[in-house]
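Bumping with the actual sequence this time:
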Amino acid sequence: MDIRAVSKGLVIGLSALILQGCFQKQIERVLDSDTYGFNGIYQSDEEEASFIRFEHGVMRYVTPHMQVVKNFKVEDGQVRIILRNSSMEKRDDLVMSIHGTGEYLTCTTCAKYKMGNRWKRAAPQS
């Protein structure tokens, strides 16, 4: 067997796998456009120093003392923050209701995690 033929086949195979991964991410973004289209920074009405940033399917909760990063999904007018760290773990998602066109988020179980119950979208920085 010719080394060139083997290396050419290997390069083509690896290129196909890499492209497949890229296309898979693009397809995922198109199919879940509600989640990937939900972006913004929200500040708590109760704690001015805390904020939540939603961007590209990732939620970042920031306080002066800590930072938590979790994935989220948007379904049926709600943001579902996935709290479990593995499929083996039994933990409910943190659910926040979206009000209007996303001006406010409310959460009935946030107090359990020492978070504010009402979050307002921060004005965009210019």
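The tokens above came from a reply further down the thread. The two ends are 62 Å apart (CA to CA).
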